[in-house]
Amino acid sequence: MMGEFKAPKGTKDILPDDSPRWDRFFNAVETVYKNYGYGRIDTPIFEAESLFARGIGDGTDIVNKEMYAFTDKGGRKIALRPEETAGVVRAFLEHDLGRNNPLFKAYYKGPMFRYERPQGGRQRQFWQVGVEALGSADPALDAEVIDCALESLSAAGLEDLKLHINSVGCPICRPGYTTVLRGYILTEPDRFCPTCLERAEKNPMRVFDCKNPGCAAALQAAPLITAHLCAACADHFSAVLAALQVIGVAAEPDPRLVRGLDYYTKTAFEIKSGALGAQDAVAAGGRYDGLVEQFGGVSTPGIGFAVGVERVLLATEAAGRPAAGPDVYVATLGAEARQAGLAAAKGLRRTGFAVAVDFSDKSLKKQLSYADKAGAGFTLIVGDEELQTGAYVIKNMRTGEQAALDPESLEPWLTSQKQEGA
Ligand code: ATP
Ligand code: MG
Questions:
Q1: Among 264, 298, 318, which residue terminates a domain?
Q2: CA separation (Å) from 132 to 62, 72, 90, 92, 251?
Q3: Are residues 255 and 367 in the same domain?
Q4: 202 pLDDT band (50/70/90 cuts)?
Q5: Which end of the chain, N or C, is more open, meaning fewer C-beta atoms within 10 Å of its C-beta?
Q6: How many Å apart are CA 302 and CA 253, to the nearest integer?
């Protein structure tokens, strides 16, 4: 059955059959985030467009090409959030969450929006979960945050994970490096694609993200940031690596790792899954020590990461379990029996049972087959005879055994069956 409409390009429905996997994912990762001391924050799905331009950066692809921005009926420039760090930092300042709090820690989950070319693991509306910690510049915190990301992904069932890590420097050392890198690119401009030449002007480090084999070859001998870090950034990076080693987290330093958001300083990282193809980054994050100040707050260091939920679920696809069916399916025969069935269902639901009522008006045989298909534990049968005798038939769908019970005995009987593990 096809109607006239389809979900917009780059979006996907999460259907009732899929949602148990999503719920299990959220349960697993949220338990980890809470264990690491993060409390949930929910911010609006849209914010002032300028928040993202200021935070993520005017010269980035996310802001220039990928943002869903519009003017609302009141003339305000609004954008759907492409990521959550800017929103959390905005809320941190708005509610003065750093007051009497040496380290503000929050986790989030929700949809993000980017106008990108949709492909496997890349959508226009996609979900992220992530954490933000604001208030400490300690490299040990970087290690703890990275560890938290990895632990949450393991808890979600991912196995073959690799941590790539780099330092992208700070406003003291990065400009010197980008000048050197720009110089390198512009010495032999014919070896680079037009996009990379454009990047060389605006945001030279992004050339390392180019998928063009020619550009990659031309970058083989490019100067790397490692040799250009200032002493503070170099020390911070070694301290992060040392702390990771102490807590037993394997890291692969990658001097070509860059991020698409301008706010990153010092530590930048990406976690890749061996179970995925081209879009193999399941999480990414880093430090953003200048962001709070950029939003007009008192200089406050911060660090966080975001996990791409669709990619994690793609990587764990094989391990999916089917949705659990209702405890009880209520088969009814006739209008009066339907009402009695509704009353019985309401009582059972109030005592904690999941109950589905049949509204098909089909034969009992057919209704029993629906119950079977739904994966029901029991089917309650209510027909004329049951109404007259006041004894409802309840059938164990696994063993086929039946019992006749008056409506008041249903709940205690089902509870005892549940305790026996029926
Ligand atoms: P990529 O290099 O894959 O485009 P990114 O650097 O743009 O990722 P971040 O902004 O750091 O990604 O977001 C963190 C994570 O969110 C990514 O590692 C990925 O798992 C997920 N993600 C980002 N963009 C999308 C998208 N359009 N669709 C699905 N997941 C996404
Ligand atoms: Mg991207």
A1: 318
A2: 20, 29, 12, 10, 21
A3: no
A4: confident
A5: N
A6: 21
pLDDT, tens only, 245-275: 999 999 999 999 998 888 899 999 999 999 8
Mutate to test the pocket of ligand 1, among 63, 65, 122, 280 (most ligand atoms within 8 A of CB): 122
Please determine, for residue 299, whether its predicted confidence score (pLDDT) is greater than 90: yes
The C-alpha atoms of residue 179 and residue 261 are separated, in whole angstroms, by 19
Is residue 323 included in any domain, yes or no? no
Query: What is the domain-level CATH number for residue 154?
Result: 3.30.930.10
Name the residue range of residue 348's domain: 328-419
Q: How far is the CA of 308 from the centre of ligand 1 (A)?
A: 6
Residues 146 and 244 in one domain: yes
Is residue 195 one of the residues assigned to a domain? no
Q: Which ligand is the nearest neighbour of the Cα of 112?
A: 1
- Across the range 79-99, mean pLDDT stands at 98
Is residue 43 included in any domain, yes or no? yes
pTM: 0.90
Tell me whether residue 294 is in a domain: yes
Cα distances from 170 to residues 120, 138, 173, 188, 257, in angstroms, run 34, 15, 6, 27, 15
Ligand lying nearest the CA atom of residue 117: 1
pLDDT for position 320 = 52
Which ligand 1 atom is nearest residue 121's CA? 29
Q: How many domains does the chain have?
A: 2
Say if residue 319's pLDDT is above 60: no
Same domain, 118 and 233: yes
Q: What is the percent of the chain where pLDDT is above 70? A: 98
